[in-house]
Amino acid sequence: MAAKLAFNPYEVLGLERGCSDKDVQKAYKQQCLRWHPDKNLDNKEEAERRFIAAKEAFQFLFDKSKRGEYDRDYEKVKHREAAYKARMEKADGARRKFINELQQREKEFAERSRTAEHLTPAQAHQRRKEEEKKIRVEFEALRRKLEQEAADELHAQQERLARLVKGQEEEKKRQEAEDKHPTLQLKWKPTGDTDYDETELRKIFEKYGNIVTITPIRTTKKGGRLCMIEFDTDLTELGAELEQGSNGLEISGSWIIPPQPPSEDAKKTDVDDKRSNIASMSYEELQAQLFADLEPPPEKKKKWHEEEQ
Fold first, then answer.
1. Alpha-carbon span 212 to 180, nearest angstrom
2. A single Gene Ontology molecular function, please (predicted)?
3. Which of 20, 151, 156, 236 is deepest in the core (most CB within 10 A)?
4. Higher pLDDT residue, 178 or 101?
């Protein structure tokens, strides 16, 4: 459900759409300084109204979810208005074309009527019936053509709007997925003096990705341990849930929020970066990288080590 407001929050703060959070904060501060009731004693009622409106506008725009929904609704309305205007302009053009064609038909009919003055009454009557029938057929064909063109245009507009809405929904889902940090829940049961603390857990799991936070370790009713590890959003692969721990103390892991696979754009960027790095290497650097992890042949190991020394 779209957020409803009795005012335009951008206008209240004097901002344009697409402004940053810093712009919102700065504008709110300026409005507070300008309309604080203590600074406007001669117009306190108006100042209080403006001050409260600025606060509500700031709270609304600083909420990314509400602001995004508000902006999407604005774009939909703007698109509908533009489509309606274009449709009306096209309809006006079609009507003008239709009127011009009718006027041309009437002119042609009048010219043919003048030539029919030399016909007998029966011939003139037959000619008139044929002309009227021809005009009706042409008029009906023109009407169907205009209606079909209008229907095609409406269908095309609906398809464009559907694609726009679908793209916005996909972008919203992608943004929501990016905002969620992969979170792994851990369970284990201490034995004797063997247990895990936050430092040990960090050492075990930091190899899987950057750790944002580890929640305090809790003890369950059955004496087990429970905590959650929140990774940075750059973690895109599974694997941490298979970690079994160290010192023989087994850990069980399950994803509360699983990692999101990288988007196609991110994959393409990563491949392009690797290609760029390889392209910028010299022959010696490329050769060194390719053979860095290779074990030297047995007969050459001694020679290689001697050269390194």
1. 12
2. RNA binding
3. 236
4. 101
Tell me which of 2.60.120.260, 3.20.20.70, 1.10.287.110, 3.30.70.20 is the CATH number of domain 9-62.
Answer: 1.10.287.110
Spatial distance between the Cα atoms of 256 and 258, rounded to a whole number of angstroms:
6
Query: What pLDDT, in 10s, does the model give residues 111-149?
Result: 766 665 566 778 777 877 887 888 778 767 777 776 677
Tell me how far the alpha carbon of residue 56 is from its chain's centroid: 26
**pLDDT digit string, tens, across residues 188-218:** 999 888 899 999 999 999 999 889 999 999 9
The pLDDT of residue 227 is above 90: yes
The helix (run of H) or strand (run of E) holding residue 171 is helix 121-179
Report domain extents, the chain.
9-62, 73-177, 183-257, 264-308
Q: What's the CATH code, domain 183-257? A: 3.30.70.330
- In this prediction, residues 222-231 reach a mean pLDDT of 92
Predicted model pTM: 0.33
Torsion sign, CA atoms 206, 209, 215, 218: negative
Amino acid letter for position 186: L
Give the chain's end-to-end CA distance (angstroms, integer): 72
* Mean of all residue pLDDT scores within the chain: 78
User: 254-277 b/e with 16+ CB inside 10 Å = b?
Assistant: eeeeebeeeeeeeeeeeeeeeeee
CA distances in angstroms from 279 to 12, 270, 273, listed in the order given: 52, 14, 10
Instruction: Indicate the pairing of strand 183-188 with strand 225-231.
Output: antiparallel
Q: How far is CA 77 from the centre of its chain?
A: 17
Q: Inform me whether the pLDDT recorded for 1 exceeds 70.
A: no
